[in-house]
Amino acid sequence: MFPTEKKQSFKTRCFALILNLFPTYRRTGGRAVFISEDLKDIHIRLKLGWGTRNYVGTIFGGSMAAAADPIYMIQLMRLLGDDYIVWDKSASIRFRRPGTKTLYIRFHITDQLLNDIQERVVKEQEFDLELATDWVDKDGIVYATVSKQLYIADKAFYKEKQAARKAAKQAKS
Predict the structure, then answer these.
(1) How far apart are CA 65 and CA 45, in angstroms?
(2) pTM
(3) Residue 4, exposed/middle/buried by CB under 10 A (0-12, 13-18, 19+)?
(4) Which terminal CB of the chain, N or C, has fewer other CB atoms within 10 Å?
């Protein structure tokens, strides 16, 4: 759906299959149709069907939100590696028109964004990052915009912070 020079690998095809079969994700109606071998480009498809249709016959907004929900977090966790903590903090969706046909969404992480995240973690140790992307049809018409707020931290810093909270809580008891 989205033009890209990136290629899929056997490993990322397997990852897409596992994601698509995972019960929680499968029930959203979303399907990973492309995951680049470097995991920086992920394309999701959401068809209008009996499982995604709402009361008025358009794509249920909850399906749009749920199908988009875990992707940025999973992507950044895998791209940044084990020295980082990545958590979803909040999400919002702005509907622009009713989803009356198959929709697509692209999660694209650039090298520049990864570098910026790594530099901010060095400086700040933890911060919130807002990322947004659009549900579009095959003609590129926007149906909804999904915004995700992610918490990103240095893993060692995060563990120290959690230990300090636990100690403070025990001291109060």
Answers:
(1) 13
(2) 0.92
(3) middle
(4) C
Say how many Å lie between the first and final Cα of the chain, rounded: 56
User: From the CB of residue 129, how many other CB atoms can be counted at a distance below 10 Å?
Assistant: 17
Name 33's Cβ contacts closer than 8 Å, sequence gap at least 6. 1, 16, 43, 44, 45, 104
pLDDT in tens, 4-42: 889 999 999 999 999 999 999 999 999 999 999 999 999
3-state per-residue secondary structure call for the chain: CCCCCCCCCHHHHHHHHHHHHCHHHHCCCEEEEEECCCCCEEEEEECCCCCCECCCCCECHHHHHHHHCCHHHHHHHHHHCCCEEEEEEEEEEEECCCCCCCEEEEEECCHHHHHHHHHHHHHHCEEEEEEEEEEECCCCCEEEEEEEEEEEEEHHHHHHHHHHHHHHHHHHC
Separation between Cα atoms, residue 63 and residue 15, nearest integer Å? 21
- The residue-averaged pLDDT of 81-110 equals 97
